[in-house]
Each structure stands twice: as structure tokens, then as C-alpha cells.
Amino acid sequence: QVQLVESGGGLVQAGGSLKLSCAASGTFVSIKTVGWYRQVPGKQRELVARISGDSTNYADSVKGRFTISRDNARNSVYLQMNSLKSEDTAVYYCNAVIARVWPGVQDYWGQGTQVTVSS
Length: 119
Fold this sequence. Notes:
Order of helices and strands: EEEEEEEEEEE
Radius of gyration: 14 Å
Structural class: mainly beta
Number of strands: 11
Low-confidence stretches: none
Mean pLDDT: 96
Largest sheet: 7 strands, mixed
Strand content: over 45%
Helix content: under 10%
Distance between the termini: 40 Å
């Protein structure tokens, strides 16, 4: 069984910073792609940032403010969020594409962590 556990969400004033963390636990062969998504009520979940191999992608709305990073030794991925805006308020989800002996390569999601930015 594989689990992704997130931490670091909370309430912050506009202009402030938060750092989200996500750690993978369980038995697996490798972690391929890692990323962060967010969702607000009534809207689709959207990509915030993702690392795939040597490639890093960001949503246009967070470029220059958010930084995604990973620590392979700790099976962890982080999202440093600076200059937060009220429109960043959402539930943030960690995502990882993980290879296991069985059932092979699958998509995994964390439970979500609330980020609220007050203006």
C-alpha cells in the first residue's frame, strides 16, 4: 500500500508564505512524476506545479511565486508558496505517479490540505 501524507497548509495573510510538504510511504519501486494540484468548490482540480524527470512545469498563475522541489532520499515533494494572493485559496493535493512491482505504475493522491489566504 502506498500513502501520500501532506502537511503545511493553514491560514496566511496576503503577501505571506507557506510551505507544503508531502511524503510517500509504503513499498514501491520508484516515484516518477510528482506534483501539486489545487481545487476550489465548484471548479475542476487544476495543476499548480509538477516535476517529471528533469522537467518542471508551473501554472501561469503561480510562476515566479511558487517553487516545487523534491527530495528523493526522503520520498518527499515540497511546494514553497510566496507572495500569496487570495485567489490561491484552495485545497491543495499532492500527486505522485509511482511504480510498484504490482500493480505497476499508478497515480496516487494525498488527502488534501487547506490553504486560506486572507486579504
